[in-house]
Design goal:
alpha+beta; 2 domains; five-stranded mixed beta sheet; four-stranded antiparallel beta sheet; 2 helices; 21% helix; elongated
Length: 230
């Protein structure tokens, strides 16, 4: 009877192995196929242990970093970084037309000609000196052909030295030779020439000294040109 029971147990185990083992093999084969498919999509390879078969291994590719841009923008001609030279004509445009300007001269220490112009002129304050800038300005009327009531309605000039502080023409109250007539009315083509005066710190006189010409009345997108005086 024991022999019979043993034979029955063996038969049952054989049936279980026949059913279970193929299922496990099929599951493993399905997993291998899925892994092969993933590796084929990603593109890497791996060697199979114990065989000459090479299978692809997944990897993450990293795009090479773009080199930093070496493109540089050239300074704008007539801007503060690339000022015009004295004698180069330029134009300042405003609402009713434009003013064509040429800086004709610059005298960093103009005490002698200013004293010669008027003996009652006060000497400049300590640490400063009189400087003269020669200008020629021509009015170009717009389509309306409106007159220019005075030059200061369209053009304003100031000077900057090493101190980087604006030096305007109002700082100089001396009587100067050939002062630019900023208050005469102009028609199209009218031209004025003369000098403007600023008080220049002695420390700024060695240069560089820049002149800025700009629209007199402007709040945004103002037209301006820089000229190197020395």
């Amino acid at each position: 009877m024991i022999v019979g029971v043993s034979l029955a147990v063996v038969a049952i185990l054989a049936v279980v192995l026949v059913r279970v083992v193929p299922r496990a093999e099929r599951a493993r084969e399905a997993a291998d196929l899925a892994a092969d498919r993933d590796r084929a999509e990603t593109g890497d390879t791996v060697d199979e242990p114990g065989s000459n078969t090479t299978r692809r291994r997944s990897s993450t590719s990293v795009a090479p970093a773009e080199p930093p841009s070496t493109t540089t923008t050239a300074p704008v001609r007539g801007g503060r970084q690339a000022p015009l030279a004295m004698g180069e004509p330029f134009r300042i445009t405003y609402e009713d037309g434009a003013v064509e300007v040429v800086v004709t001269s610059f005298t960093a220490d103009a005490l002698a000609p200013i004293q010669a112009e008027n003996q009652f002129n006060d000497p400049p304050p300590p640490g400063q000196q009189y400087a003269l800038v020669g200008l020629t300005a021509t009015y170009r009327a717009g389509p309306s052909q409106a007159t220019m009531p005075w030059l200061l309605s369209a053009l304003r000039v100031s000077v900057f030295g090493q101190s980087a502080v604006e030096l305007n023409t109002y700082s100089c109250s001396a009587v100067i030779p050939d002062r630019l007539d900023s208050f005469s009315e102009l028609l199209d083509g009218g031209t004025l020439s003369g000098n403007e005066c600023v008080l220049l710190p002695i420390a700024d006189a060695a240069g560089p000294v820049l002149l800025r010409a700009e629209e007199s009345i402007c709040f945004t997108d103002c037209d301006e040109i820089w000229v190197r005086l020395q």
